[in-house]
Amino acid sequence: MDFEQKVEELSNLAQVISYKKVKISYSHKNLIFLSTVVLLSAALEEYFRCFVDDLFYRFKVGSAPMTALHPNTRTYAILSRQQEAYRTFLFKNMGEIEIMNRLSISRKVLYEILDDNAEYTNHITAKEIVQGKKYPNTRNIKILYNRLGISDIFAVINKKGHKDYRTLIDSFLDIRTTISHASPMSLTILDVRRCLSDINDVVNRLDREMYSHCCKYSGIQYWPQNGSRM
Hints:
The protein has helices at residues 3-18, 26-61, 71-91, 96-102, 108-111, 126-130, 138-147, 153-161, 165-181, 189-217. By secondary structure, it is mainly alpha-helical. It has one domain (3-222).
């Protein structure tokens, strides 16, 4: 199921129980409204995971050259694999011999990423790229897209969409956080519709921008055939 289908499913669920003819208490209806917001947040997390996973799958099955992966992606992969070794060397008294073995230039898993003539197989995994940035707040989204080669995703989509998408996400997550960590709040069907519409709009705009970026840098053949899938 793709993200738009999930949004439609949640919208239909919330809409059906909002009707006056549905003979359940407002408390019960509100629980469903609250659950819809929580499920939408989970769907957004899953969107990012699946999108990156699909993209790297296309790189693999398409026998992409390493140059099809943006330099930011390759640089981050090197950084993430080396940082723990350097941290241990600096703060846990790892010996010079051990760290040289870990970072040896003979280790293809580390340095073949730098070879423009190499063919991508599993040199970099989608899990590496998403790690630590799956929760869909604006800071994580900005960092995730920078890892994929777009340095300031919100500056780009705000300009093209003529909206403040950062604020849309922050407002939605404020509701999500209140539901999870504060006193229960009351929502209406209008609140739920707005959340669904705003986040669907955000994902559509992100998809468009990433599509343009992928076609320009990597090639249209590596774009996931079904777009943003879940």
